[in-house]
Design goal:
This protein has a single domain, classed as Methane Monooxygenase Hydroxylase, Chain G, domain 1. Helix content is 83%, strand content 0%. The protein contains three helices and no strands. Helix 1 packs antiparallel against helix 2. The radius of gyration is 17 Å and the shape is elongated.
């Protein structure tokens, strides 16, 4: 399997750095005793952002795995991908 493309690597890096900043923001909110509904809303935003980053990675993984796979290998690759996607939630 080929290495991930620079575009995908860059997109994931940008997304993960943004998520990292969001998590630091949530931590500050907790330290500042902000209201729980605000904190929970931000935690949900972090979870949604991480889910979207996971989908970018899964799409790249699927494309690269299937690119050079034989018809026999595709079934196993798709099974592995579905199992990995099932663990996202």
């Amino acid at each position: 399997m080929q290495a991930r493309s620079p575009d995908v690597k860059n997109e994931l890096t940008v997304r993960l750095r943004r998520i990292e900043g969001q998590v630091r923001g949530v931590l500050r909110m907790v330290e500042e005793d902000r209201e729980w509904p605000e904190i929970l809303q931000q935690m949900n935003a972090v979870r949604a952002a991480l889910h979207q980053a996971s989908l970018v990675a899964a799409r790249d993984y699927a494309g690269r795995c299937l690119e050079d796979a034989s018809p026999e290998q595709r079934e196993a690759i798709l099974d592995n991908l579905i199992a990995a996607l099932g663990k996202l939630d």
